[in-house]
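Can anyone check this?
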Amino acid sequence: MGYFLTLVALVVALGVTWRYLGSYMAAVFDGRVHFLGFVERPIYRLLSTRPDQEQTWKRYGGAVIVFSAVSLAFTYAILRLQGSLPLNPQHLGAVGSALGFNTSASFVTNTNWQNYGGETTMSYFSQMGALTVQQFVTPAVGICAAIVLVRGFSRKNFATVGNFWVDLTRCLFYILLPMAFIAGIIFVGEGAVMTLAGTATIHDVLNGAVQVIARGPIAFMEAIKQVGTNGGGFLNANSATPFENPSGLTNFLSMYLLLAIPFALTYTFGKMVKSVRHGAALLAAMALLFGVWVGFTSFAEHQNNPAVAAAGIHSTVGNTVGKEVRFGDTTTALFGVASTSTSTGSANGAYDSFTPIGGLGLLTGMMIGEVTPGGTGSGLYTLLVYAIIAVFIGGLMIGRTPEYLGKKIQAREVKLAGLAALVMPITVLVLTAVAVSLAAGRAGPLNAGPHGFTEILYGLTSQGNNNGSAFGGLTGNTPFYNVIGGIDMLLGRFAIMIPCIALGGALAEKPVVAESLGTFRTDNAMFIGLVVGVILIIGGLTFFPAISLGPIVEQLSHLRFF
């Protein structure tokens, strides 16, 4: 009963957020919200820009690359110099070069993949001054890229798509900072740790044992971890530890926060293109797939693990291996799907201990492009890429030039959309093939056979989709996986984002074509079904052979026991 009440409460909360947060974000990016003008103006003067000084898509994309490159160098420098910087009560030394590259690439790409234990590797300064800073700015960059694509549909005969520095500033100060601050207060109130006092040492008077407990400024990092669909935790156990996720309320709040902005951006899209019906159609496609994935993953985790059942052990509480008893099997599955269907990657359980089909739910949620609802910004612009491909297919079916919101979808737009859609699967599959072909790659997984293959596939899929969650069995902190993972994350972020920004620029230059009787509708159930079909076909055709070698064959291999 608690699981279903959680689902209902989550749906209601997200429904309210979709309407009001979505409308508010549209107002922010339209320039109608400026109560912090006294904060904005000095920043614009420092950057030598103005809100009315717009950029072409090339300059906008160039600003994204320059800002991200500087962020990468800044983060890497802090990690490498960590031993000489303040706020280091653990007296930790420098982070290694390969791990530093992987971690910097991870946090700059909104992936937050962690090949380290935060409490044993990172100082307070590194956690706050490098990693938490990136947890604010990288989701803002993703939202900015999505807004460029939205402006491509909302404008006509425009050579410009906005100003990156203005969009970034407004996103930070009007959206992410307020939401993270309020959420952080709630986390602290519920008991999440927030201190600079260093570790705590406990002496057990009964046996004389000494235990050192890691502490730190955790609660507010936890807030932006979820709000920005980041997922990088202060502690190695992430949201499974009560220091980060102390209660049922914070567990619910975590799921709500990581879904709130991605879902609400569809309403922002509808408001900015002046057709809420089109935003609702995108929402319906997201919600349909998300609901199906939650359903079969939760069902799988509510069953006995087939390997445990084969040993003659039967339970009525589902697959509880690797799960917090505070949350249970189905709520952990819900959290996992919410995390892997966005680009969050946070975890309140051990995903490596899910059943084969439960793990399949987490893995395929990423493989279909993380559009259900996807990350902050990245979910919307990836879904719009699929929508453009769906429009193109629909136009071919009725024998007309495809149109979406009055914009003709021609060769240039289809090429850019196709590139953005195929970068991730090509990158993930090629790098997975490299990993399983080399001894350094095969040394990573803990398990042999199909489960070991799934650990490699999951890790590279997670990084290529900028998700950050992991099957705990993969040893990723090796030179091979640090380097290959960093490349995976950078390609998965910018080789998709830049074509989407270019697509926004191409669409903004186009005029709006009036609707006619032969126009293919893009706000009805048929279009929603077509978009869902395109998502499943692209994900299914590219990844089905790989998942057949992993979770599917693992599940089928257990049938011999029954």
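Reply from J.R.: I decoded it. Residues 244 and 363 are 24 Å apart (CA to CA).
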